[in-house]
Specification:
Layout (H helix, E strand, L loop, with lengths): L1 E5 L10 E6 L12 H6 L9 E4 L4 E5 L5 H15 L6 E5 L8 H14 L17 E5 L10 H26 L7 H15 L2 E5 L1 H6 L3 H7 L7 E7 L7 E12 L8 H4 L7 H15 L5 E11 L11 E3 L5 E3 L7 H15 L4 E6 L3 H7 L3 E5 L3 H14 L2 E4 L4 H4 L9 E2 L8 H10 L10 E5 L5 E2 L9 E2 L4 H12 L1
Parallel strand pairs: 1-6, 2-4, 2-5, 5-6, 9-10, 9-13, 12-16, 13-17, 14-15
Antiparallel strand pairs: 3-4, 7-8, 8-10, 11-12, 14-17, 18-19
Bound molecules: ligand BES and zinc ion (2 copies).
Length: 484
């Protein structure tokens, strides 16, 4: 999609279709044309509601109130509504909360690009995006001058963010027969070449040398061998150093603690954390942000077979701590235990964040649309929450407590991989990971359980059916804020 900014009034712009956002439910503003028709059509201008007046080539979209979140969704709804039409070019006026609001423009462009996404890889008939040209008028609906360069920059940031999010969506949506651990490694390598990033891929031999026995145990029954990926964006004189760790289960069958068949469907999503980490690295390097960002991915497939790891096994993790396996479906935390240890060994970071589709319990607790943010210290957690609000993703905190800590005790090893209580599963998984965070890093770390929002089987807001690319927008924002 091409974007053009202009100060010409919208009426003077030549385009196939005009998108008109309606904030005022009574259609009182004099720029609202076709009032009678809208009333006749019973268009109420509710948020998310759209009405296409084909005769006039006008698409009306309801917006509850002008803010980033609503504008992003409104533009996503607009482009989704136009998908089945033959319009090639679109014009829209930019809506602003106030004078400094180029972020409103960013939100609108993000909405268009995120809403235009569809996953076609496995369809023999590919639906093509016909709409190519978007002209945005900065003039008509407000009486002040905006800095054109700032507006151009806002569009650029939106394009990078949305492109990286869609890139992550594509990886997650790709099926386990086409995307296995080595595929993730290839994608990382590709990014490294394209964007001049540092990239190191550990294969089984090197992983063994690093003593990542917990990760190797999970990987053992799969014909697809594991990979550990370290991808880094290293600008000169960085303002901060951060490590991002992604759970990259390219498939989670549950292992010998096999998932019931209905729960196994969609478990290609279990690489969402890893895919987000790759997307974030793509975005921060394209934005050229002065922050050193390290991405670590544990890429593994959890399968069954004669060689599979078992409930009752005791694993010696990279950290030296021993883990009693009581459920092979709690595999993500085993992989992360080792990758977290590796990340801490390799990089002395100011902040450490892990993104993982770790527990069904987090979805039970918060619903499908919100991630759970955990850790020992409010600073990194609040950074995530703040960034999520600006980026338009939903995230909330779940607190650790000392009572739940006890539930991971093991009679035979240092720790059990599952809790002895059926309650609070998102938190006990977070506490398990905390056992692999070194003392000096306790306050620098936050764990983000994205099991809910990473993959949803219906459209929601600006997100499509399937992978949402959750985490890319939020964590890119977080890095942008560190860069300031
Ligand atoms: N990958 C799953 C978590 C998951 C479930 C993600 C649903 C997305 C949607 C994870 O590996 C898992 O299986 N967790 C178990 C943990 C349990 C065995 C303690 C779970 O949530 O049931
Ligand atoms: Zn599992
Ligand atoms: Zn899993």
């Amino acid at each position: 999609m091409n974007f053009e900014l202009t100060i010409s009034p919208i009426s003077e712009i030549d385009a196939d279709v005009e998108v008109i956002l309606i904030v005022d439910k009574n259609f009182k503003h004099n720029f609202v044309k076709n009032r009678k028709l809208l009333k006749k059509a019973n268009f109420k201008a509710e948020q998310d509601e759209s009405y296409l007046l084909v005769e006039k080539n006008r698409l009306f979209i309801g917006v509850e109130k002008i803010n980033d979140k609503n504008l992003r969704v409104a533009m996503a709804k607009a482009i989704q509504r136009l998908k089945s039409t033959k319009y090639k070019s679109l014009k829209v006026a930019c809506y602003f909360e106030n004078k400094e609001s180029t972020h409103n423009l960013r939100a609108m462009v993000e909405g268009l690009l995120l809403g235009a996404y569809s996953f076609n890889k496995y369809k023999t008939k590919k639906s093509k995006q016909k709409l190519k040209d978007v002209t945005i008028s900065l003039e008509e609906y407000h009486g002040f001058e905006l800095d054109k360069q700032e507006c151009e920059d806002a569009i650029k940031l939106a394009q990078i963010t949305a492109d990286a999010t869609n890139f992550t969506r594509d990886i997650v949506n790709t099926t386990p027969n086409d995307c296995y651990p080595d595929t993730l490694a290839q994608i990382a390598q590709g990014l490294a070449e394209e964007l001049n990033l540092e990239c190191k891929i550990l294969k089984p031999k090197e992983i063994k040398k690093e003593k990542m026995e917990a990760l190797l145990a999970v990987a053992r029954a799969s014909r697809h061998k594991p990979r550990v990926i370290h991808l880094a964006h290293k600008p000169k004189n960085p303002k901060a150093v951060i490590s991002l760790i992604g759970k990259g289960l390219t498939y989670d069958s549950g292992g010998l603690s096999l998932k019931p068949s209905t729960s196994m469907v969609n478990m290609k999503l279990d690489k969402s954390g890893a895919s987000a980490v790759l997307g974030i690295l793509k975005a921060v390097s394209k934005m050229n942000l002065p922050v050193e960002v390290h991405g670590f991915v544990g890429a593994v497939e959890n399968m069954i077979g004669g060689d599979a790891y078992k409930p009752d096994d005791v694993l010696i993790s990279k950290s030296g701590k021993t883990i009693e396996v009581r459920n092979t479906d709690a595999e993500g935390r085993l992989v992360l235990a080792d990758v977290l240890a590796y990340a801490q060994q390799e990089v002395e970071a100011d902040y450490i964040f892990d993104l993982a589709t770790l527990t069904g319990a987090s979805v039970v607790a918060l619903g499908q649309y919100t991630s759970a943010v955990m850790g020992n210290c409010d600073t990194p957690k609040d950074m995530v929450i703040e960034a999520s609000k600006e980026a338009g993703e939903l995230a909330t905190k779940l607190d650790f407590n000392r009572h739940l800590r006890k539930s991971l005790k093991s009679n035979v090893a240092d720790i059990s991989n599952i809790s002895n209580t059926p309650y609070g599963g998102a938190i006990t998984a977070g506490i398990f990971l905390d056992n692999f965070i070194e003392k000096e890093n306790k306050d620098k770390w936050a764990h983000i359980d994205i099991a809910g929002p990473a993959y949803v089987e219906h459209t929601w807001g600006e997100n499509p059916v399937g992978a949402s690319g959750y985490g890319v927008r939020m964590m890119t924002r977080l890095v942008e804020k560190l860069a300031k």
